[in-house]
Amino acid sequence: MSNPLKIGIAGLGTVGAGTVRMVTERAEKLKAATGRAFEITAVSARDKKADRGVDLSGYEWLDDPLAMATHSNVDVVVELIGGADGIAKDLVEAAISGGRHVVTANKALIAHHGTALAGAAEKAGVSLAYEAAVAGGIPIIKSLREGLAGNRIQRVYGILNGTCNFILSAMADQARDFDDVLAECQKLGYAEADPSFDIDGIDAAHKLAILSSVAFGCEVNFDAVHVEGIRQISLTDMQFADELGYVIKLLGVAAVQGAGGETSLEQRVHPCMVPKNAPIAHVSGSLNAVVAEGDFVNTIVQEGPGAGAGPTASAVVGDLIDIARGANIPTFGVPADQLKAMTPVPMHKHVGAYYIRLMVVDEPGVLADVAAAFKKHAVSIESVLQRTRDPGEPVPVVLTMHETEESALTGALADIAAVKSIIEPPRMIRIEAL
Amino acid sequence: MSNPLKIGIAGLGTVGAGTVRMVTERAEKLKAATGRAFEITAVSARDKKADRGVDLSGYEWLDDPLAMATHSNVDVVVELIGGADGIAKDLVEAAISGGRHVVTANKALIAHHGTALAGAAEKAGVSLAYEAAVAGGIPIIKSLREGLAGNRIQRVYGILNGTCNFILSAMADQARDFDDVLAECQKLGYAEADPSFDIDGIDAAHKLAILSSVAFGCEVNFDAVHVEGIRQISLTDMQFADELGYVIKLLGVAAVQGAGGETSLEQRVHPCMVPKNAPIAHVSGSLNAVVAEGDFVNTIVQEGPGAGAGPTASAVVGDLIDIARGANIPTFGVPADQLKAMTPVPMHKHVGAYYIRLMVVDEPGVLADVAAAFKKHAVSIESVLQRTRDPGEPVPVVLTMHETEESALTGALADIAAVKSIIEPPRMIRIEAL
Fold first, then answer.
1. A279 touches chain B (CB under 8 A)
2. Whose CA is closest to A4, among A37, A32, A29?
3. Is A252 helix (H, G, I), strand (E, B) or coil?
4. What Cα–Cα distance (Å) separates residue A294 from each residue in A7, A157, A256, B300, B304?
5. Neighbour-count burial for A343-366, b at 16+ CB within 10 Å, e otherwise
């Protein structure tokens, strides 16, 4: 295999520029590793004139990225445009039907259309590679799809959004409010002007849906992911978490359910209270981490940068190396037509422990009402924590609940919210057994 | 590729039995993942009659494992016999020259003969796979050789021996002496009757030499690894480490040296003081962890079980999956004849910070002598810590030293050891900047 690997890159933001830089700087090593020269032949982006800090003069500029899909001088299309639909999807579909391999960092695209695209790629005999779409530089897709592929994975979970982890870490470390930290992140460019994609958990949910497919051999089912973000996390809850021996993280968690296993799948993204000694509790700042629990291997933890030009380019180039070496691996580990359609477990069926914070005035009578509500719904209280207070002042009452089905807890909280001296809606954060 | 993958397994200890169990229990998934049935066809071990908890009656028993190497019904030889030479080496060499793929968990074999065996395998057009040889179930070889292969790795390090990590963790957590914990480990079967292979760092050094080759694209050079074990670590030093903000770990560390990089290589295994907030400081018990630092990806941390039947079988089966999928990857990431011969950096050229503990009587005069010795060798003291004492009683004096070349430190310690009121040889533990 001494013919060069001819690469077209569509989308030249920081990741695209980083990929150009890595492929050119590392030319010698890539050739040694694969036996083939890596040649960037064509590039495309919206603005031809922008200075991207890399020399693009040697590559053919295509105003229309779709032209890459059938370009005689392109073996692999690297799609770095982004978005679940539109031009990115058109390009990937066209590249596959044009017999070109595809490397993409586009989590939304794979989360929404992964199963169909995998089927098309396998039919066309090309690779659809997306290591960069999940957890940036961490080679977690490769680990699950190849190295750990002999295992039955019971659960995969992780810190999948660096922006959320950065905000939560800063809140905890610096005792600052959510809004304050978010505003700073936006000023520094760590968070978007419209941060909802990150902050509301959607980005993490895209990644979780992809991880699930690779871990459990099931169809990618983004719509089945229960998604909550971190806007509701207050400094008060951070401080109680600390007191109770937890840290608060936005986690994506996917786990198979049922005795025979592998028929039902729970997928959820939401803030969690994580025990301080859990494998990922110490992962702070913008880092990501993914934990896979397999029946033979036990627990494997991988941590690293989840975003950024360098780490993402590292993942893109890793995929290009696989393609240059002629890797022949089904997109999600098993052929697309053998991916299982697993039954989603709805969130009200989730079983777990819970942290509850109530803001109450006139506490003595209230606790009896609260306890009665939990009793009525058969939810068992594990602990109660109450701050000293001035008479008449609202005071936080914090409870932790033993494992229960979420529907029971929700029922109890609805009753509790109606108690007159509880002056704010109850706050609930799930406690994760890790 | 619908022909089955025919597997011969030589060596039926716990890992061999675990591999048999995984291949048989996971038959359906393996076929889905690779398009090929996995068939164990032949097995071999010393004692045919031993009960291994798995049914071997369906496989051909070979009294001579070497017969596997040319057996018409074997595509892959799984070598789980162990040992750098002898029958394991004979079998792997014969299998390669017989055109059979090889999967091995044998770190000693690869550490001592990896370069030559890789050359032979590549010449014969077969795979030599050894994921199970390093860090058990953690797919670190795959990560370095494939997913992160576009990076220039500057340093790779890790906790590579679970027995040592278990002993050091127990000493720290339970305030127990080394001998005490070791004896318990031996009673429980966690450590061998002759524990030197683990305790003296040899096992970790085998793994480090293999990691180096994959990370840096160099020949496997076990002889260039500086090796020290953990026998000298005392509870006293553990407690001082804690006070200074460190934990003590046995690390393997490999790093390229020099401005242009990649010409000189430092490889060393020894106890280290690791800052409590380092990425691997919390990795305790028998877990392993490996950290890779690449120029594009930054820092990737992987943790998991480093030994045991299940995790090791997971790695063996991961290699079998690669082979079944027709993976075509040079043994150490680049072809064996392109592996660099890097210049070893001798330990006396190591530059780092140090912890020193002296046991002294009649302290006032001594400190002047100690300070003079360090000054003479141009070694700069960072901090001094001294316990209260009864007059005339020996008292520990603990110093931390700024970064210095080890030869200077060794010179100073030789002078200090000669001071009359220093009643024990100085204890030195390297402080690792992680």
1. yes
2. A37
3. strand
4. 36, 12, 12, 21, 11
5. ebbebeebebbbbbbbbbeebeeb
The model carries a pTM of: 0.97
d(CA A219, CA A102): 19
Looking at residue B331, what is its pLDDT?
98
Residue B200 has phi, psi (to 5 degrees) of -90, 5
Q: How far is CA A206 from the centre of its chain?
A: 6
User: What is the pLDDT confidence band of residue B387, given thresholds at 50, 70 and 90?
Assistant: confident
Amino acid type, A29: K
Could you write out the DSSP letters of every residue in A264-327? EEEEEEEEEEEETTSTTTT--TTEEEEEEEETTTEEEEEEEE-SSHHHHHHHHHHHHHHHHTT-
Cβ atoms of A210 and A220 closer than 8 Å: yes
For the domain made up of A348-431, the CATH class stated in words is alpha beta
Question: Which whole number is the average pLDDT over B170-190?
Answer: 93
For A315-352, the DSSP string reads HHHHHHHHHHTT----TTSS-GGG-B-PEEPPGGG-EE
Domain A144-305+337-347 sits in which CATH superfamily?
Dihydrodipicolinate Reductase; domain 2 (3.30.360.10)
The arithmetic mean of pLDDT across residues B179-191, rounded, is 90
CA-to-CA distance for A319 and A257, rounded, in angstroms?
A: 32
Q: Which of B161, B172, B88 is nearest to B130 (CA)?
A: B88
Q: How far is CA B320 from CA B22, B65, B344, in A?
A: 11, 19, 34
Residue A353 near residue A362 (C-beta atoms within 8 A): no
Query: Which superfamily does CATH assign the domain made up of B351-431 to?
Result: ACT domain (3.30.70.260)
CA distance to B14, B160, B187, B233, per residue, from B184 (Å) = 21, 21, 5, 17
ipTM entry: 0.96
Whether residue B426 lies within 8 A of chain A, CB to CB, comes out as no
B149: nearest CB among A279, A301, A321: A321
Q: What Cα–Cα distance (Å) separates residue B222 from each residue in A104, B138, B203, B204, B257?
A: 39, 21, 11, 11, 18
A327 vs B contacts (CB less than 8 Å)? 325, 327
Residue (of A298, A237, A254) closest to A428 by Cα position: A237
CA atoms within 13 A on the CB side of A373: 19
Q: What residue segments make up the domains of chain A, in order of their start?
A: 5-133, 144-305+337-347, 348-431
CA distance A153 to B26: 12
Residues of A in contact with B297 (CB under 8 A): 137, 304-305, 310-311, 314-315
Helix (H) or strand (E) holding B97: helix B86-97
Write out the two tokens for B264: 């000189």
Give yes or no for a contact between B237 and B427, defined as CB atoms under 8 angstroms apart.
Answer: yes
Per DSSP, B342 falls in state P
Domain over B5-133 is classified CATH 3.40.30.10: no
Q: Which residues, given as ranges, of chain A have pLDDT below 50?
A: 1
Judge whether A268 and A425 are in contact, CB under 8 Å: no
Catalytic residue among B6, B107, B207, B249: B207
Query: Which amino acid is it at A296?
Result: F
Q: How many whole angstroms separate alpha carbon B24 and alpha carbon B20?
A: 6
Structural contact between residues B275 and B281, judged by C-beta atoms closer than 8 angstroms: yes
CATH number of this structure's domain B140-306+335-347: 3.30.360.10
CA–CA gap between residue B236 and residue B259 (Å, rounded)? 39
Looking at the partner chain, which of A296, A303, A317 has a beta carbon nearest the beta carbon of B310?
Answer: A296
CB atoms within 10 A of CB A91: 28
The Cα B338–Cα A247 span in angstroms is 48
A82 — phi, psi (to 5°)?
90, 165
Nearest CA in chain A to B334: A33
Instruction: Please choose, from the candidates B42, B246, B290, B224, the residue with its C-alpha nearest in 3D space to the C-alpha of residue A139.
Output: B290
pLDDT per residue as tens digits for the range B132-169: 999 999 999 999 999 999 999 999 999 999 999 999 99
